[in-house]
Design goal:
The chain folds into 3 domains: 2-47, no CATH class; 52-133, no CATH class; 151-251, no CATH class. The protein is built from 6 helices and 6 strands, in the order ααββββββαααα. A hairpin with a 4-residue loop joins strand 1 (55-58) and strand 2 (63-66). Helix 1 (2-18) packs antiparallel against helix 2 and helix 2 (27-47) packs across helix 6 (235-248). The protein is an alpha+beta fold.
């Protein structure tokens, strides 16, 4: 948001300069370009070295780890972090102020005995619209489905390169002749179209009472990739992405 705000200020200044006799303030675009370059390239690198309050899910060992100290925690994982059994982790929704004057839904993950382990309560930043609880439900559904080690990994682009590392998933793919690198034939735009289709269905789904829909475990029977739509790394594509980054703060 901070990146886009400065880019918007630059756009307004350019518009004003077009209809004004005042000299153009060159320090504004220089500051904007520097700001965008720093936040989009350098900041993620520096943030990787800063300690964060995070949780992570171990599908194989059925554990949930915390990167920060939790009073009363007795179990540690191979990284030396506090961890709890997946069966003892719960999620609930709360309506909180996401920004001044705006209320939104936020999922909170914690130990089932929150009174004993209050420090395990952590808010999840759902990137989608927080005005709709659906996005929180979708997030937790993804976590629950990932942790279900009685089923193969969900066949989604995020897990494409890691399916062979999970024994159950690798065996499932072998028995069902899953195409190698299936999602590699789908452009990002096509993947977004598929995501929007299911997101639209989720918006009309009764998350509290309806029977869960049948999972698509063999997407190659439902979707066909269009590799011709994959954007090539030509100089035009690179120039477009660079311009969006410098002028609009879009990575």
């Amino acid at each position: 948001m901070r990146i886009r705000t400065l880019s918007l200020i630059l756009l307004i200044c350019c518009f004003v300069a077009t209809y004004s006799n005042e000299p153009f303030q060159w320090w504004i675009p220089i500051l904007t370009f520097s700001w965008n370059l720093f936040f989009l390239n350098l900041l993620p690198i520096t943030e990787s070295y800063l300690p964060k309050k995070q949780i992570y899910f171990d599908r194989k060992k059925q554990l949930v780890g915390f990167t920060y100290e939790i009073p009363g925690c007795e179990e540690r994982d191979e990284l030396g972090n506090c961890c709890f059994k997946w069966a003892d982790i719960v999620c609930h929704l709360d309506i909180v102020a996401t920004r001044p004057g705006v209320m939104g839904f936020v999922p909170f993950i914690s130990h089932i005995d929150e009174d004993k382990y209050p420090e395990t309560k952590i808010a999840v930043q759902v990137p989608d619209n927080s005005n709709n609880p659906m996005n929180c439900y979708l997030y937790w559904e993804r976590v629950v489905r990932f942790m279900d080690n009685n089923q193969p990994l969900p066949d989604v682009p995020e897990y494409e390169n890691y399916r062979h590392l999970d024994e159950l998933t690798a065996e499932f793919d072998k028995q069902n002749d899953r195409p190698n690198k299936f999602w590699s034939d789908f452009s990002l735009a096509q993947q977004v179209e598929i995501w929007q289709k299911f997101n639209k269905e989720a918006a009309h789904f009764n998350w509290l009472r309806a029977t869960p829909n049948k999972e698509i475990t063999k997407p190659w029977l439902h979707f066909k990739g269009e590799p011709e739509r994959i954007e090539k790394l030509t100089w035009k594509y690179k120039a477009k992405r660079l311009a969006l980054q410098l002028f609009m703060g879009i990575p």
